[in-house]
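Saturday, quiet lab. Running sequence design on the structure tokens for the scaffold JK sent over.
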């Protein structure tokens, strides 16, 4: 049950930009490290921003998590995925057993995995899955709204609560993960609606559909936007919450809440691929100040991802040709964040060597 402490309004009111004065102090130290200024590129920028986020000249990432939000999608009825909807539940079992890519990578990266059922059709949850179901899957957005505004708000508030609980437990960073067969379709719809980018241009192959089905998927997305009265790039589509409610999905809404909650609690938020990118875009539309807390881990092969990141104005660090989801790309940024902090805290300055 969500209480008022975790309301969206309360969380939004707590979001402030990373501390500029701390960032200025840390930037001066980074510039004086024994290297040409700027020569370590993104590592320098990440260290400075982590310091501003934590309001600490010596930031740490001793506790980090990845939260995998899981939900099903009514749009699967339209044949947009290469896999049936029940694979969502099967993968939740795989997460619980520790056998998925995100489990493997997270063990290596020393990140704790939290798997949340926020909207799957699964009746009986595997042990270890966090029960937070708003409803059993979204509606088919090709026929009307994927969910009500109230359901979208409930899912966002669930994400805020989880971010709050992680902050209370000392977690300094949250990587965004997802699982939901069909979820590249609502993600592309959200990104097209808010950015105004052409639907065929940003529609990808998702789970591996062929070119003919990709084109059909694009037409389905265009139909979904029309049915729900979403004119791409219009002023109405700048209302991120409205777009989210009309095209879904519940796991995307949960990720929006994690972003808002993470920013409110001064946690770094690591954006994964296109689903997390769509969530970041909605959160940014609701509160542009979240941008200071977002780290784009990698560039997905899904073309909508770049459109979302470009609109927000954040650059992906890794280019690995990935498109799995689960948070698998997001956790791969953790060792680079670690490297940036070791650079900050352990490298000698020119003053140290007598220059």
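Result came back. Writing it out in full:
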């Amino acid at each position: 049950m969500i209480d008022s402490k975790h309301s969206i309004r309360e969380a939004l009111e707590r979001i402030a930009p990373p501390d500029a004065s701390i960032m200025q102090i840390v930037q001066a130290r980074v510039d004086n490290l024994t290297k040409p200024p700027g020569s370590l590129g993104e590592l320098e920028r990440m260290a400075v921003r982590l310091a501003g986020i934590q309001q600490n000249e010596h930031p740490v990432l001793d506790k980090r998590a990845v939260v995998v939000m899981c939900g099903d999608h009514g749009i699967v009825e339209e044949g947009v995925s290469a896999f049936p909807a029940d694979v969502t539940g099967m993968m939740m079992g795989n997460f619980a057993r520790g056998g998925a890519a995100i489990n493997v990578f997270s063990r290596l990266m020393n990140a704790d995995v939290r798997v949340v059922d926020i909207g799957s059709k699964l009746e009986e949850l595997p042990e270890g899955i966090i029960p937070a179901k708003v409803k059993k899957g979204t509606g088919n957005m090709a026929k009307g709204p994927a969910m009500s505004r109230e359901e979208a708000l409930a899912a966002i508030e669930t994400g805020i609560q989880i971010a709050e609980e992680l902050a209370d437990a000392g977690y300094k960073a949250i990587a965004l993960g997802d699982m939901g067969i069909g979820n590249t379709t609502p993600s592309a719809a959200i990104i097209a609606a808010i950015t105004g980018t052409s639907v065929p241009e940003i529609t990808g192959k998702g789970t591996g559909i062929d070119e003919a089905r990709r084109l059909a998927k694009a037409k389905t997305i265009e139909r979904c936007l029309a049915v729900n009265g979403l004119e791409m790039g219009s002023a109405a589509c700048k209302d991120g919450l409205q777009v989210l409610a009309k095209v879904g999905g519940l796991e995307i809404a949960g990720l929006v809440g994690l972003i808002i909650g993470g920013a409110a609690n001064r946690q770094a938020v690591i954006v994964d691929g296109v689903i997390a990118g769509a969530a970041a875009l909605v959160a940014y539309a609701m509160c542009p100040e979240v941008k200071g807390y977002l780290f784009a881990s990698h560039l997905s092969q899904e073309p909508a991802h770049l459109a979302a990141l470009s609109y927000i104005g954040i650059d992906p660090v890794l280019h690995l040709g990935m498109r799995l989801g689960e948070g698998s790309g997001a956790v791969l940024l953790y060792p680079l964040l670690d490297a940036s902090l070791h650079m900050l805290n352990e490298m000698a300055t020119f003053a140290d060597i007598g220059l």
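Notes for JK: The two ends are 59 Å apart (CA to CA). Confidence is low (pLDDT under 50) at residues 1-5. Ask whether to fix the surface positions before the next round.
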